[in-house]
């Protein structure tokens, strides 16, 4: 085991910021997510796995919640009010059993793509137990347990303010490090964030596409940066529309620019998909004659951008040639490229593995795909896929008709986090290689589940609105989280 001093220093800095926000662990957990290439240590005994810094915050959060004096009563209350948590527990148990059993039961009966033991990329091999069964299952279970812990805190200590501050810090750090990375590259300073990249990953941080530098921020590659940019953009945009927050508006503008400059096919396609509900919302406002000034601003900016581009093209047709070439190589001809064909083959072999195992799956972490839904099918099988679909449906539904039993600010935060969780699913559908939906999804699931339970309680009590709580500190427990 090799300890990373930089990783622990970054954790200390985030913890200090979280302390001033009165919720060091909750804010720290969320704010540590942009550091996608900063590890705490390298576990040589587990194939050189590098746990990222968010795992430390998640582990400590679980420990603090488990140490609460009335934890068993609180867990009973949480599981009694949140039936989807039973599905989550069933999925975690199925994932653990499947990760141990299926690679052994179906050993040699199908072929999968796995990480090379020499860290030389992804290779095709016969199905067999690998270190990924341990690490990927560990990440998945950690995310599930964190969701349960968050439900406990949200129901009994009302930490929605801390979650909101954590997401704003996440977006601010991600945008700031993205800008820093971009400026460093275009000014010739190189990878200025290299000191914090301590994970045992292949670092594709100084690459170009179509003559443009690829932005990676604090991540290991542009695709991961683009995916997280979409998640942050979804949160800031929805929060801005719900509350008219100028901070959220400014962050959304910066994040939109970073998505455009990221040179990530995942970011571009994901942005187009996420733009559909935005366009439909504006269209509905136009048709109902209830358009507000923010929607007018969006339409006006798009019109100005369109006229500007058209004017530039008329003046100099070659000016946009590099941008056209970039779009052509990253989107239109992506499937025909060597990388696109390789990833398509990963997906084909993953679907074949699903069929070869009679729909049971090869076990979490046993294979590598290039799409989250396909990874879920191949690794978790039909049973696990149905349970995952249940959780996804819960997130997609959001608060529904229960919105009126919570105050406006709480609804705004829940809607924003729901948007970010759905954005993570959209991004993962084009790039994720594992069935793990990620920590943002689990946090979103917890926030929605807990606030639905709280809203149902308000409805039964006959109260239309419950005031938003203030602190991420539970005086009855004496422990700040």
Structural description of this entry:
The structure is a single chain. The model is unreliable at 466-480 (pLDDT under 50). This protein has one domain (2-291, 335-480). Strand 3 (111-115) and strand 4 form a beta hairpin. With 481 residues, it is mainly alpha-helical. It is globular, with a radius of gyration of 23 Å. It has helices spanning 5-20, 24-31, 54-66, 71-81, 84-105, 132-156, 160-186, 222-243, 246-261, 265-287, 293-315, 321-332, 338-356, 372-397, 408-431, 439-461, and strands spanning 2-3, 41-42, 111-115, 122-126, 208-209, 212-213, 473-474, 479-480. It has a two-stranded antiparallel ribbon. Strands 3-4 form a two-stranded antiparallel ribbon.
How many strand units? Answer: 8
- Overall pLDDT level: 87
Query: How far is the N terminus from the C terminus?
Result: 29 Å
Instruction: Tell me the strand order in the biggest sheet.
Output: 1-2
Share of helix, binned: 55-70%
Series of secondary-structure elements, N-terminal to C-terminal:
EHHEHHHEEHHEEHHHHHHHHHEE
As a whole number of angstroms, the C-alpha radius of gyration is 23 Å
Low-confidence stretches: 466-480
Integer count of domains: 1
Tell me the overall shape: globular
Number of helices: 16
The biggest beta sheet, please? 2 strands, antiparallel
